[in-house]
Specification:
Keywords: Membrane, Transmembrane, Transmembrane helix. With 331 residues, the chain is mainly alpha-helical. The chain has one domain. The protein is 74% helix and 0% strand.
């Protein structure tokens, strides 16, 4: 009887609702697309290739710009893109975890994390209004992903269990004392998330105003005026790269903080945090020695974040890896 009832139900289902499911697969698809986009940005950075629309925007002086300052302008642009790629890929990892684990259980806080993080990530594209460069490829990707993301959120909302309001984010999953190894671990990881969010916000604001910090200009051995002389479009293009990195960093930082704050300690959470931090810090820090940009003041915040991350992962390992319960077989 049960098999017949299931067959009747399958016959009554419509194609698109069945294909879309409860919406989690759409959100997972967005996470996978973000990881692929991050990988593509890393590929461009590793091969030192400018996108066709970047070359067209720079104009006939593109080759001259690439060869100026012993190639440091090009290296500087790709160091931003490498960091951007790592941050985007890290965000995609967190989105996949949120869709596969807490959202599968109908936990409302995970839905709100995706909403808030998504708002930050997608809206950062509008920073182009501050620097005047419209990236058509970035705009197209945003226009394609945003409806998928929105539809995934709409369909998963109906699957949430219990209270669905935003106040669910105010309820921490950690009930123990902070003055313990587990508490230290969670506090350290949340501090990393806060640091990423603040750093990303600062980078976005910088991209819309000054664009460069003093250490950047020292590395380039050029002034902003000299950069503008090479091409009036060069600084807006660099600002665009920086804004993209800042947006990805704020989105990832907020998601990381809330996953640690609201997420129940588990092996899967520890594992996705390990992957997220490895991808993010390896790209953000590792690209600097490759291009010779090793200024201590510039790298100090990233190394401080890495130290907190390693401490947090070490201290939280035990709490997130409880002993496995033995399986009792019925006789």
């Amino acid at each position: 009887m049960e098999t017949r009832a299931q067959a009747d139900l399958a016959e009554q289902q419509e194609f698109l609702p069945a294909l879309l499911g409860d919406g989690r697969r759409l959100l997972t698809l967005v996470g996978i697309c973000l990881m692929l986009s991050g990988g593509f940005a890393l590929f461009l950075a590793a091969t030192q290739q400018l996108l066709p629309h970047d070359v067209a925007y720079l104009g006939v002086v593109a080759a001259q710009v690439c060869g100026a300052a012993d190639g440091r302008i090009l290296h500087f642009m790709f160091h931003d893109r490498a960091a951007f790629g790592g941050a985007v890929a890290a965000t995609g990892l967190l989105y996949c975890w949120l869709a596969e684990f807490p959202l599968r259980q109908g936990q409302a806080w995970a839905w709100w994390v995706l909403v808030l993080s998504g708002i930050l990530g997608f809206s950062s594209f509008l920073a182009y209004l501050g620097y005047g460069y419209f990236d058509s490829w970035h705009g197209t990707a945003t226009a394609m992903l945003l409806p998928v993301f929105g539809l995934g959120l709409v369909r998963t909302y109906g699957q949430l269990r219990g209270p669905r309001h935003l106040r669910q984010l105010l309820r921490p999953a950690f009930a123990g004392r902070w003055a313990t190894r587990a508490g230290l671990g969670r506090a350290s990881l949340m501090a990393v998330g806060v640091g990423m969010f603040l750093a990303g916000t600062t980078i976005i604001l910088m991209s819309m105003t000054r664009v460069f910090v003093p250490q950047d200009l020292h590395y380039l051995n050029l002034t902003v005026k000299q950069l503008m002389t090479l091409s009036p479009h060069l600084v807006p293009l660099i600002a665009h790269n920086r804004a993209g990195f800042g947006g990805a960093l704020t989105s990832c930082g907020l998601a990381l903080f809330l996953c640690v704050w609201c997420g129940s300690p588990s092996r899967s959470l520890w594992q996705v945090l390990a992957l997220t931090g490895t991808v993010g810090f390896a790209t953000a820090i590792g690209v600097h020695p490759l291009i010779g940009y090793t200024d201590f003041v510039h790298l100090a915040p990233a190394f401080a974040g890495l130290g907190l991350f390693v401490l947090g992962m070490w201290a939280s390992y035990g709490a997130m890896h409880p002993p496995k319960k033995p399986v009792t077989l019925a006789h």
